[in-house]
Amino acid sequence: MVRIGIIGIGFMGYTHFTGAAALDRAAVTAIATRDAKKLAGDWTSIQGNFGPPGGHVDTSGLKKYSDYRQLIADPDVDLVDVCLPTDRHFEVVMECLRSGKPVLVEKPISVSLEEAEQMVEASRRLGVPLYVAHVLPFFPEFRFAAESIRDGRFGALQAANFRRVICRPDWSGDMSDFRKLGGWGIDLHIHDNHFIAHACGRPAGVFSRGLLQEGFVNHVHSSYIYSDGRAVTCVSGGIAAKGLQFAHGFELYFENATLLFDAGTLAGNWVVSRPLSLLGNDGKLSHPELTGNGSWCGAFTDELQLAADALRGQRDPGPLSAETALAALQLCWSEARSIASGTAVSL
Fold this sequence. Notes:
Layout: E1 2-7, H1 11-20, E2 26-32, H2 36-39, E3 63-65, H3 68-73, E4 79-82, H4 89-98, E5 103-106, H5 113-126, E6 130-133, H6 140-151, E7 157-167, H7 178-181, H8 184-187, H9 190-200, E8 205-213, E9 216-225, E10 231-240, E11 244-254, E12 257-266, E13 269-280, E14 285-286, H10 298-311, H11 322-341, E15 345-346
Parallel strand pairs: 1-2, 1-4, 2-3, 4-5, 5-6, 7-10
Antiparallel strand pairs: 7-11, 8-9, 8-15, 9-10, 11-12, 12-13, 13-14
């Protein structure tokens, strides 16, 4: 069994803990937080932008640490799951790697490109696995889309457009300092850049137009440059009106089919404007059967399961690859440079 220790019991730590309850041959056995109430099982202060609020958790069977370094040093922890704010990722991940402890860190790997490069290099040099928890490829519609692109079941992908937009969030004080988040061009849009790098392959460059705030991207329209001429674009940012809390979707144009999806939170209500829809050259519409357990944290269960299986050597880490996470961050900063310069930027 892979024994997982979670560092940081905020919303993502709570989400990972809940998702881990359904793991096969893996389980959370330790937690670390400076909050004494949370160590005792009072998680009622936790609230996120999806899923239920935290409640009371039985922590009696867990090892509990107020100092995360003790968790890293625990020989009974096989995989450290870092769910701290982004500005803490570098420090804690590097401590894990230097200690020889495999680590899964929440997205983004970092806001700093230099820090991300150091983490990936350290993982390679020390031979210690580093996984980055980009969850989007584990959501059923996006899993189906990525598999369709990668295995060519509908022929080659000819063009694609992705969308991910929000209004300025006011549900969490942690979201107030856009500098720590890297702007919405990293905190939000890195989901798209990661998915595009994972499913379509790393592009040769990017041309972007958008809005910058103190050097960070807050809204972007990007065209990704591929040598085979595929037209891949994305719109993402945090400038929508307050009634549009969140929206995402895609249009994928294959040789033999078109795949569409569109959903979001409109005026406080989750609305699936267009469920995953497959349109064939025969003129027919169908809705592909999707896999997943259907719970609010099911995608996180699948994400953690892959990390555990990869650690055992049973599966390739795929979308959890640190190299793909680094490529996504490189794309984010290339977009900022492209907006600032008004020119295409090569990777």
